[in-house]
Fold:
Amino acid sequence: MANPGHNLPFETLDYMKKTIAIDMDGVIADIEAQVLAWYERDYGIKYTRDYLAGRPSDDLFPEKGLVGNYVRTAGFFRTLPVMEGAVEAVKTLMEDFEVYIVSAAMEFPLSLNEKLEWLGEHFPFITWHNIIFCGDKSIINTDYMIDDHIKNLDHFKGKTYMFHAYHNTLVTHHTRINNWPQVVELLKAEL
Amino acid sequence: MANPGHNLPFETLDYMKKTIAIDMDGVIADIEAQVLAWYERDYGIKYTRDYLAGRPSDDLFPEKGLVGNYVRTAGFFRTLPVMEGAVEAVKTLMEDFEVYIVSAAMEFPLSLNEKLEWLGEHFPFITWHNIIFCGDKSIINTDYMIDDHIKNLDHFKGKTYMFHAYHNTLVTHHTRINNWPQVVELLKAEL
Structure:
């Protein structure tokens, strides 16, 4: 049950590491790729990421509310593609930072187990100690937050990095990051 | 999906409320009652809360590891009795505080949905915005924490209240609370 090394001295060093809260959807899990693929499957039309840019989540496609239906469909979160470069980058960051996966999963109760299974498959090196599923993220306290949603970043007390996503293309008040190698570069510079 | 009143001015007042993180197991959910009842069901012996006092969780009964098996049994968390007075007390606290339910549920993946359903049944007035399931609680940042486990309370930066439980009877470095009316009394005095 408990980590047997939890009270050993070397853990003290871990405790001193700076902490990062990393979001799932749109950050380590590629929501855009999934939505585009499901739309093509259902309507035979292949939209691109450029088409999505700047659109609000509830108005991505001509079919109003479609994305809302998708995210409430069993299997949606379990089968999300991993964001390019995320696995390697998170592994690298864990060498120098205490990394927490923080997902606003409570809105979609079906997603809880799917997200946990997904993490177990793609990020097995992240233990249950460092996984957080929440409603809003206002009581999350880490040194850094990597997220695509300004509703999470705006009230955060630490340093923010906004992962590029279709819905934040016009936002300029957070440090934009475009890909995972860039996250590693920026955070390594903080050491 | 989103709370339609989320950006209205009166929400600003809510935002200024002091925040409380309230644990589930042993605080609003009566683990001791369930464990004693299941033991009596399985072994025909009726132990009391006094018998449990001071014992470690993994050595509560002569049958080593029994509690570990119980908490991994489907239905255990879903059928926990509500701690006496918890519903009324949490409702009262919500008048003056922003209340978050923070449960270290990640260790037991089966418990995620059970805990969410349990909250929906017994605390339907707490919305998904204010529910957090985590591994450890070290990045939880609220003004107050009510918990029975010192592993959660010891590293917490805010004010701590230790809910009385069999495993903390010898602990003296947190404010002990014995029942829910006492929680309300102490926190009302903080206003």
Remarks:
- Residues 10-30+82-188 of chain B form a domain with the Rossmann fold fold (CATH 3.40.50.1000).
- The CA atoms of residues 2 and 129 of chain B lie 9 Å apart.
